[in-house]
Amino acid sequence: xxxxxxxIRLPADxxxxxxxxxxxxxxxxxxxxxxxxxxxxxxxxxWFLLDKCQTPPMTGEESRIxxxxxxxxxxxxxxxxxxxxxxxxxxxxxxxDSHGRISIMQFFNSVMRxxxxxxxxxxxxxxxxxxQGYLRESDLENYILELIPTLPQLxxxxxxxxxxxxxxxxxxxxxxxxxxxxxxxEIQDILAxxxxxxxxxxxxxxxxKESQETNWFSAPSALRVYGxxxxxxxxxxxxxxxxxxxRYGTTMTNVFLDRVFQECLTYDGEMDYKTYLNxxxxxxxxxxxxxxxxxxxxxxxxxxxxxxxxxxHYFFRAIQELMKIHGQDPVSFRDVKDEIFDIVKPLKISxxxxxxxxxxxxxxxxxxxxxxxxTYEKREALIANDHENSADFDDT
Length: 396
Known about the structure:
It is a single chain. The protein has 396 residues and is mainly alpha-helical. 60% of the residues lie in helices and 3% in strands. A two-stranded antiparallel sheet has the order 1-2. Strands 3-4 form a two-stranded antiparallel ribbon. Helix 6 packs across helix 7, helix 7 crosses helix 11 and helix 14 crosses helix 15. The longest helix is centred in the N-terminal third of the chain and has 22 residues. It is globular. The relative contact order is 0.05. The N terminus and C terminus are likely disordered.
């Protein structure tokens, strides 16, 4: 006799009562989960207990605690803290201390990290309209839009720019976490990847200018990317033609840009802002698998899922033509081909081969950008020059 299996289906669009019941049940569940988290007062109490039970002797300025005392803290901290005190946590943080102690700060930071993850998971689940553990693009847009007022580093952002800011930031999540493009991202993947850390870094009121410049989610970065798009759009129609995109990098080959417009989504032969963002993210992150997947598709002109001598020559021939235009003697393709195959061993280079080489950014740059090729070609002279400059500096 087969066991009875209960299948819970999602309410249909016209089942309004069931939808409301489901939403209410989920809200009650999330409220209960939120109450299980440590609040600020409980975290402060935990820190007080840890500090009170520190185990001598002092090692530098870092307070430490042994296993016996941390168990005592776990008993006093209350039932909500029980999950943070398993033996394996202590063992993981125990390194080379001769007294068998762990760093109190490291332990407390691990607790804070877990609390943050649970808080963030609950926050993301609230936007999971389907209730299936993933966010669609519109769900993530709503999440980031409502997050903006809580991030001090975005205080100066004009509200008229909010929609462009949200579009810019959501695109990075989907570019890296939705490689197959089904239009949804698992909440688990969002939590596991570092993107959310970068976004929530904007809560730091004292975030340095350097950190803002390197953080895709910062206001200066978003304004830079969108401002560049507007500058390229010479006819001001909100889209980029092939000729307008060419100005993004004047040493990129025509062949590569042709492939961009052949393979990427366009409207009447022009690129919208979202497609442009994919292009920028790919070129600015050439060491990342998602970016390499994007570029590899453009280089794979025969759709064979590998690059061979023909495809390499197809793209490098355009580099040679640019050399002639700039009055330079073209480099032999045979030499470049041999170097590429030295870097990536198979004569039929798959995407995984490219990733495994750990020099995929170098290989792709050689094939699509003249400046990038010359930087690689002159690398030994540049290194020698750096050594000479260092020697001159030491002599002074």
